[in-house]
Amino acid sequence: MDRIDTPLLDNLEISLFDQFTPDTAQLVQFIDCSPKLKAHNEAHVAFDNLSVHLTLPWIFEKGLRIIYEVVDGQVLSAAQVCISSLSQAFCATVEHLYICDNYACWQGDIQVENNHWIELLRPFTSVKSLYLSQVIVPRIAHALQELIKERVVGALPALKTLFLEDTNLSGPVQKAIGSFVSGRQFSSHPVAVSHWERKPSD
Predict the structure, then answer these.
(1) Average pLDDT of the chain, as a whole number
(2) What is the dihedral of CA 69, 71, 76, 82, to 10 degrees?
(3) What is the pLDDT of residues 148-160, one digit of tens each?
(4) Neighbour tally for 80: CB within 10 Å
(5) Which own/partner contact pairs does 157-160 have at CB distance under 8 Å and 24+ positions apart?
(6) How far apart are CA 57 and CA 47, in angstroms?
(7) For residue range 70-129, what is the model confidence (pLDDT) as tens digits?
(8) How far is 142 from 144, CA to CA, in rounded Å?
(9) Quick check: helix, strand or coil at residue 166?
């Protein structure tokens, strides 16, 4: 595929399957030859019961979409996609990141997921705006707190605004988000929190 030149290609969907780790180096070269598919500044990570979708972005069925079919371990699977050679080059240019839940059946323990969330976020070094859907906020809040507690290097260094679909947070979740915001303030990388009025297109 790296020998194919497709400058007009504006739509590519890639399906990966559980326990399958592809050698994607040639596929990355192929995408590099398709200007419309790379260097997007917006990405969406969406979870449902059977798969994780990473889109960069998907407007009117145009863009790059990676679908990872999984049975469980949704966050781990999403992290594996984001840190793969297939995604890393593109994640680094994203400035607006949306993480959403499409009626996923969450089975994993939130505490176990913390490291997986951090690994998922790490490649997005240029993200300025992070949008979290209502179901995602309580699952990722403690991971954000860990970023401050453990001073994780390279995770969301450019983040300016955290958009939450649900701002009516429970005590532990509110405390975790508050710790993250306070920690960023003290580290000279302040983050503002705003309400996200989610639209169907999001």
Answers:
(1) 79
(2) 10
(3) 876 665 678 899 9
(4) 19
(5) 157/125, 157/189, 158/95, 158/125, 158/126, 158/127, 158/128, 159/127, 159/128, 159/129, 159/130, 159/184, 159/189, 159/191, 160/128, 160/129, 160/190, 160/191, 160/192
(6) 15
(7) 655 678 777 777 777 667 667 888 899 999 887 666 666 566 678 888 888 988 889 999
(8) 5
(9) coil
